[in-house]
Amino acid sequence: MPSPVAEIPAAEPDLAAAHYAAKLAFETDCSDVHAAFAGAKVDFVLLDVRTPALFAQSHVPGAINLPHGKITAHRMSEWAKDTLFVVYCAGPHCNGADKAAFRLAKLGLTAKLMIGGITGWADEGFAFESEAIAAE
């Protein structure tokens, strides 16, 4: 009798590779975002989609505050169509980043979710900023 882990067989390697490649097309993590900023290779725009008040209290360094409800075609027109956006919110208990990524996709823009959000950033021990750098 197999363990609960092995009771359902693991996917074949080619199926697993396809699955994880697809998943990584939608997500990035706090560590990769931090490494991009630390290495000066920032080829994306980091959007904090929480409220301006929460952003002012604490946010990921380099992020721009743009609440998901304010993601409109007019607002996003200041960036090139091929810009990659990375979005985050409070953490796994919040779907604000999902809403933001959805809005961006509906506008024909590419986006990845920074899994973990602020909670994940804190769990990694990375520093925060607290001054307001809001997108108006």
What does this structure look like?
The chain is α/β, with parallel strands linked by helices and 136 residues long. The chain has one domain: Oxidized Rhodanese, domain 1. It has 6 helices and 5 strands. The protein has helices spanning 13-26, 30-38, 52-57, 73-76, 96-106, 117-123, and strands spanning 27-29, 45-48, 64-65, 84-88, 110-115. Strands 1-5-4-2-3 form a 5-stranded parallel beta sheet.
**Contiguous helical run count:** 6
Strand content: 5-15%
Would you tell me which CATH topology applies?
Answer: Oxidized Rhodanese, domain 1
Order of helices and strands: HEHEHEHEHEH
Layout of strands and helices, then pairs:
Elements: H1 13-26, E1 27-29, H2 30-38, E2 45-48, H3 52-57, E3 64-65, H4 73-76, E4 84-88, H5 96-106, E5 110-115, H6 117-123
Parallel strand pairs: 1-5, 2-3, 2-4, 4-5
Would you summarize the structure shown here?
This protein is of the alpha/beta class and 136 residues long.
Which terms summarize this structure?
single chain; 136 residues; Oxidized Rhodanese, domain 1; 5-stranded parallel beta sheet; 6 helices
